[in-house]
Structures are given as structure tokens and as C-alpha cells.
């Protein structure tokens, strides 16, 4: 009896070790530093550029992406909602709808040069719904038209993201904690292959600069490692 109990316990511990090793081998960690530049033309029109890097923890290699885009916002919300928010350079009346369109170029750097390249045309629409005291729920639907690789074939993705955030304002200082979840449907696999969850905070340091930090978890059934954890650090710079 004692031998059987020891054998069962040993088997259980061994199975835990095997499962942990399998999960660890299927997990990666990345650092995503980014700089975002915003230029407001008027309360409705805005231009911006995002410059994110992906730094791979195991190899130290990196990818670079450059986004150029334009936004147009319109419509009144049912609740009057004045906010600076993480992507606004000063407080203003929140508009209910926003559309964005842009282009993205991406490529690998360092020893991985040539392994990754992407051309991307995208468009998205946002519906923003204020609730309660400075809470904001937003829904975003986005379409990516993609050409990936050295001999690129056309593919597209449809992405849906839901986000909740709340802003705290004290003079020129603003803090916006948020949570969001995003689903990716990819035409290459004809399925939802990616789920991304993120939580973080944006701190506004006056009318010109803001710092954003979040922790992201991503599950992707067709990525090199299915489970990805990333630290995202963003510097926002606003121009009028």
C-alpha cells in the first residue's frame, strides 16, 4: 500500500514537471517600446504616427513598425463627457464616433534582417460610450489588408476590441487606467486565431507628454509560441 501511494505521488509530481516544462517551452516574453506622435488639426481631425519596436527576450532581436494615420471624430454622446484621455492633448467634449485609416510598414532588424516584412493598409471605426462618472466604454472594429513576407501573398484580418477606462484629473495631471480584450480573425486560417488581453495606465504629464504602460497577454494558435507575455512602454507626444 505504501509503495502504491509513493508510486502514485511520484507519478503525479512527474506529470506536473512535464506539464510545466511543456507550458514554459510554449511561452515567450517580449518588450514593446513605442513612441506615438499626435497632431491635432481641429477638434474633429487629427494626424498621428506610431513607431513601435518588438524586442524578443530570448534572442534580443527586434522588429520595427511605422504607422501613419488620420482620424476623424464626430457625433455627440448621450452623456456630456469632458476628458483628456490617453490619446488627447487637452480636455474636450468626447465625440461618440471616430474613424481611422492608415498604412503600416514593418521589417526585422539586426541578425533577423529579412526574416520579417509587412505592408499593411487598415481602417477602423470606434464607438465611444461614456457611463457614470468619467468611465468610458469603447468598441473598435478594424480591418487589416496585409502583404507579409519576402514573397508576400495578400491576406486580411478582422479585429474587434472592447475597452473600459476611467480618467482621474488633477490640474494638468491625468491618469487613465484601462482594461481591454481583442479578438483577431485571420483569412489565412479562416478562424479566430488570436486573443489579446491588456491592462495598464496612461499618465499625462501636461499638455505635451504622456507615458503609458501595460501588461499584455496573447494567445495565438498559429504563432511560434502560443502564449505571449509583453511589457508595453509608450511615450506619447502631442502637437497642436
- Fraction of helical residues: 10-25%
Count the helices. How many? 1
Q: Which class in CATH terms?
A: Mainly Beta
Determine the oligomeric state from the structure.
Answer: single chain
Query: Which geometry do the CA atoms define?
Result: globular
What is the second-level CATH architecture? Beta Barrel
Strand order of the largest sheet: 1-2-3-6-7-8-9-11-12-13-14
What is the CATH topology classification name? Porin
| Rg | 21 Å
User: Which structural class best describes the helix and strand composition?
Assistant: mainly beta
Termini distance? 78 Å
* Helix/strand order, N-terminal first: HEEEEEEEEEEEEEE
> Uncertain regions: pLDDT < 50 for 5+ in a row?
16-22, 85-91
**Count of beta strands:** 14
Instruction: State which percent range the strand residues make up.
Output: over 45%
Summarize the structure.
By secondary structure, the chain is mainly beta.
Give your account of this protein's structure.
With 240 residues, this protein is mainly beta. It has one domain (30-239): Porin. It has one helix and 14 strands; from the N terminus they run αββββββββββββββ. An eleven-stranded mixed beta barrel has the order 1-2-3-6-7-8-9-11-12-13-14. The protein starts with a helix and ends with a strand. The relative contact order is 0.15. Residues 16-22 and 85-91 have low confidence and may be disordered.
